[in-house]
Specification:
- With 628 residues, the protein is of the alpha+beta class.
- The strands form two sheets. Strands 3, 4, 5, 6, 11, 12, 13, 14, 15 and 16 form a ten-stranded mixed beta sheet that branches. Strands 1, 2, 7, 8, 9, 10, 17 and 18 form an eight-stranded mixed beta sheet that branches.
- The relative contact order is 0.14.
- Strand 13 and strand 14 form a beta hairpin.
- The radius of gyration is 24 Å and the shape is globular.
- The protein folds into three domains: 198 residues, FAD/NAD(P)-binding domain; 100 residues, no CATH class; 154 residues, Helicase, Ruva Protein, domain 3.
- It starts with a helix and ends in a 15-residue tail after the last helix.
- The chain binds flavin-adenine dinucleotide.
- Flavin-adenine dinucleotide binds next to helix 2, strand 8 and strand 16.
- The site of flavin-adenine dinucleotide has 40 residues, from helix 2, strand 8 and strand 16.
């Protein structure tokens, strides 16, 4: 990505066809789709890219077997088609994952699950394989068929498609789920979904959008719409670093702010932060008009916990019953085991969503009962929570029962709001939005994102060996960056100290920190731990141990937080005082994310953490930075 200063200069000097507000997967997707159709695009993100829900998902690119229960067949079908396409477009980032529903005590696997899996198979493969052929036949017979149906898809012919689900033996279950060996499963269903690193997917899509000319900047929050004759003509934005305001002029505005979608728009329509450059009235009618054209978000919180692989070894995913007819996933992810998620209505603060003690207990209880383990909160390697941007229909349904479908809203100012949906369906959401813009401009510009590779996949053995880089870093780098892993290794070769791991024993290396600052607009320690590497999710105790050492005056040379601060200080020209301030800010952010001093799921959840007290318990947004 281009440097942030360069992006800011371009945003204030130019006029764009489109400004996208929000740098999660939805905003990134809209930016890519529009840029590839010839629109000039600006994208602004108030905090850090993917700081919202897009860094807090279960990391699955999936159809969602659960949604079959709600008869959301259209959503499942769409997501399954996207799943297959994502593996073709970004094989290094989105990869198949075997999942198991085990059975015990000689019982046959549940028939009803088998029926659901049958449907899942049919929806994911058969019709999709037939689609191009069918469309071509229909075309030849003069029955229509869209261009997109006919176009060969990326990697078609050799692209991944899942094997049909099947019943496997108890031994095979144990090979995939060694953690279950003690319970001696007798058989199980095996099926497939896909897995990713959600933040990396966002950064990769943004990188592609930039390749097609989009200009993207983080720490730039829209505070209101610019309007001319009642039509949106850009946004006013606040630079979170300099506290300066700038106007970004654009013929179209897309609001892709996820769970914040109704906040931005009500502010734009007359809330305290609203701005109207052309003296547009801000009376009650305007507010009513805008609000009635916009979604009402009903946030639902989901929590995950992370365990060491040694404590819960898995080679595939497990569907774990959690009581009350619900199930959670236990998944291998980046060398750890990820367990989640919960699904509860939420009306708390959106900028930092802590994993509450009750959710952590619920997940641990489900795991302990199912695997026969005795894991407690003290065994956690991490925990995180996020909020789903569900759209309220006014119906008092439980959040689990609300559809995950995306919705596009058009306000009378012309501003489009796209929200709801899933990580998996980002491309369809982007297409829906940009199709509307194309229609508005009467352009002839069909969607192309189904054929645009995301990043450049690379085989691990294509990477050069660099002295000091641990062996397990190579596959991790290839998976995270694809071809761009060469750049990380070049940095490690140039400055030997950057070859070292950030946290001893884990594959992430210090050269990634330098790359994050140079190429990915990382501006804070939190950006590096939560959203460039995922160590904030995977190694919370190790990050906290450094805090203890800092407090007690022990040797801090090995403290991951200090090491990252040191690399960022050099890249971003921080003086020692600024570096210390940034460490305090990270400590506050970790506290606000619930991985601070009081421990995960501890008593302090929801209040100020011990760690947070270090900076007076001030509240920070993810990735937010104030002037030093
Ligand atoms: C617990 C959980 C598990 C999930 N698991 C899965 C899964 O496994 N698979 C799947 O497909 N989906 C999953 N989802 C759903 C998926 O994560 C979301 O649908 C998706 O990430 C939403 O992306 P988004 O870009 O719309 O929103 P966000 O990622 O929240 O992005 C919105 C962005 O807008 C920014 N913003 C807000 N206000 C402003 C402003 N005024 N100016 C500029 N920027 C602003 C925010 O900082 C934020 O970064 C899960 C969701 C949750 C909560």
């Amino acid at each position: 990505m281009i440097e942030r200063a360069q992006a800011l200069a371009a945003l204030s000097c130019n006029e764009f066809d489109l400004v996208v507000v929000g740098g999660g997967i939805t905003g990134a997707g809209v930016a890519l789709d529009a840029a590839t159709r010839g629109f000039s695009v600006a994208l602004i993100e108030r905090a850090d890219f993917a700081a919202g829900t897009s860094s807090r998902s279960s990391k699955l690119v999936h159809g969602g077997l659960r949604y079959l229960q709600n008869f959301d067949l259209g959503l499942v079908r769409e997501a399954l088609l996207e799943r297959r396409l994502m593996v073709a477009l970004a094989p290094h980032l989105v990869h198949p994952l075997p999942l198991v529903v085990p059975a015990f005590d000689g019982a046959r696997p549940d028939r009803l699950v088998g029926v659901g899996l049958n449907l899942y198979d049919v929806m994911s493969v058969d019709r999709d394989r037939l689609r191009p052929r069918r469309a071509r036949r229909a075309r030849e017979a003069g029955e229509g068929g869209t261009d997109e149906d006919l176009r060969p898809r990326a990697g078609e012919g050799e692209s991944w498609s899942p094997e049909r689900h099947r019943v496997i033996s108890g031994e095979e279950v144990c090979e995939l789920l060694p953690a279950l060996a003690g319970r001696e499963p007798t058989s199980g269903y095996l099926f497939y979904d896909c897995q990713t690193d959600d933040v990396r997917l966002v950064l990769t899509v943004l990188g592609e959008a930039e390749r097609f000319g989009a200009v993207c900047a983080n720490r730039l929050g829209a505070t209101g719409l610019l309007e001319r004759d009642g039509r949106a003509c850009g946004v006013r934005a606040l630079d979170g670093e300099s506290c300066e305001t700038l106007e970004i002029r654009a013929a179209n505005v897309v609001n892709a702010t996820g769970v914040w979608a109704d906040r931005l728009t009500s502010a734009a329509a007359g809330g305290e932060e609203a701005e109207h450059s052309q003296g547009e009235s801000r009376d009650g009618r305007d507010l009513h008009r805008e609000c009635s054209e916009l979604p009402r978000i009903r946030p639902s919180r989901g929590t995950h916990v992370v365990l060491a692989r040694e404590d819960l070894p898995l080679n595939g995913g497990a569907i774990v019953p959690a009581g009350g007819g619900r199930a959670v996933f236990a998944l291998p992810w980046l060398g750890r085991t990820l367990v989640g998620t919960t699904d509860r209505d939420y009306d708390g603060e959106l900028d930092h969503v802590r994993p509450p003690a009750e959710d952590v207990d619920y997940l641990l209880r489900a795991v302990n009962e199912f695997f026969g383990t005795g894991l407690s909160v003290h065994d956690l390697a991490g925990a995180f929570a996020g909020v789903r941007p569900l759209i309220s229909t006014g119906d008092p349904k439980k959040s689990v029962d609300i559809s995950r479908k995306a919705e596009l809203y058009e306000a009378s100012s012309g501003m489009l709001t796209i929200t709801g949906g899933k990580l998996t369906t980002w491309r369809r959401m982007a297409k829906l939005t940009v199709d509307r813009l194309v229609e508005r401009d009467s352009r002839d510009a069909p969607c192309r994102t189904h054929e645009i590779p995301l990043g450049q996949a690379i085989a691990v053995d294509e990477l050069p060996q660099v002295e000091g880089v641990p062996a397990d870093a190579y596959p991790a780098l290839a998976g995270r960056y694809g071809h761009a892993a060469h750049e990380v290794l070049a940095l490690a070769a140039e400055r030997g100290e950057l070859a070292q791991p950030i946290v001893p024993g884990l594959p992430d290396i210090l050269a990634e920190v330098a790359l994050a600052a140079r190429r990915e607009q990382a501006r804070s320690i939190g950006d590096v731990f939560f959203r460039r590497t995922r160590l904030g999710l995977l190694a919370a105790p190790e990050l906290h141990a450094g805090t203890d050492a800092r407090d007690s005056g022990m040797d801090t040379a090995a403290d991951p937080v200090r090491r990252v601060a040191g690399v960022l200080a050099r890249e971003l020209a921080w003086d020692p005082e600024r570096a210390l301030l940034e460490i305090e800010r990270f400590v506050a952010e970790a506290g606000a994310e619930g991985i601070g001093g009081e421990g995960i799921g501890g008593e302090g959840v929801g209040g100020e953490g011990v760690i947070g007290e270090g900076v007076g318990g001030e509240s920070v947004r993810s990735g937010e930075m104030r002037p030093a």
